[in-house]
Amino acid sequence: MKLVNVAAAALNQTPLDWSGNRDRIVRAIERARRRDVSLLCLPELCITGYGCEDAFLSPEIPERAMEVLGEIAPKSRGMIVSVGLPVRYQSAVYNTSCLLVDGEIAGFVAKRNLAGDGVHYEPRWFKPWPEDTRAEITVGDRTVPIGDIYFECDDVRIGFEICEDAWVADRPGARMAERGVDVILNPRASHFAFGKQEISNRFVVDGSRAFGVSYVYANLLGNESGRIIFDGDTMIASGGEMLAEGPRFSYRDVVLTETQIDVDKT
Asked: In angstroms, what CA-CA distances link 84 with 20, 45, 50, 87?
């Protein structure tokens, strides 16, 4: 039996509110620490906010996001935390989730499948990362991996499906299951629509069962992107069973949902 306390946090972020977004992220980390959480999943693009639109193409935005990440990283000491931000690599911008491990940047997972329908225009701003491709990026004085990767922390393997990655037929989770991943994190910026919650619930529960993992899902919260509303749903499932769900449409800036998983069970 290997028990791990995990959590998902919904955040009410504002595009380009660097200090406010950072403070809400740090608040979620501190709250999770007080509840003895070891692994925390934060939403997609939570450092910048999702609704930056063409500002994502400005070189200053990924640069400033990386600076803010550097301010957040030390706050994760003693924990594992995923944080979403845009990253510029070889003249292209990628939608990534960074895994912070004990106060250090362990690497960046880049989103493979971009949402480009309805209210989403991600292919305009980001480049999809190719499958089974890994590279390296320099952050400060360190070189860390970026791409289609997973992490191993204290004998627990952690992988990602970033929002749209879970909505495609060939989900990355299937390959992660072949590699023995124990926990899949799903950081999201998924807009509210009637009936969508049932679909998301099925993706989380069915994904945890089909891939033999624990699955942690964290969405943005509020009306940060003009006409897009995020309901702030958070879910944690393991082995086909829903273990915890957070409230939706909260008026709070930070909503934390936590539970305990047994890695050996899955």
From this structure: 15, 4, 10, 10
pLDDT tens for 35-72 read: 999 999 999 999 999 999 999 999 999 999 999 999 99
3-state SS assignment for residue 251:
coil
Handedness of CA 127, 97, 161, 16 (dihedral sign): negative
Instruction: Tell me how long the chain is.
Output: 266
Q: How many CA atoms lie within 13 A of 243 on its CB side?
A: 22
The pLDDT tens digits of the residues spanning 9-20 come to: 999 999 999 999
Tell me, rounded to whole angstroms, the distance of Cα 208 from its chain centroid.
16
pTM: 0.97
Which residues are CB-neighbours of 214 under 8 A, at least 6 positions away? 6, 182, 183, 184, 208, 236, 237, 238, 239, 261, 263, 266
pLDDT at 227 over 80: no
Contact (Cβ atoms closer than 8 angstroms) between residue 208 and residue 237: yes
Q: How far is CA 259 from CA 1, 36, 203, 235, 240, in A?
A: 16, 10, 19, 10, 15
Query: In the block, which residue shows the tokens 């006409």?
Result: 227
Report whether 136 contacts 86 (CB < 8 A): no
Paired tokens of 213: 């993992």
Render pLDDT for 236-261 as a digit per residue (tens, 0 to 9).
999 999 999 999 999 999 999 999 99
| φ, ψ for residue 195, nearest 5 deg | 85, -10
Q: What is the spatial distance between Cα 197 and Cα 195, in angstroms, rounded to a whole number?
A: 6
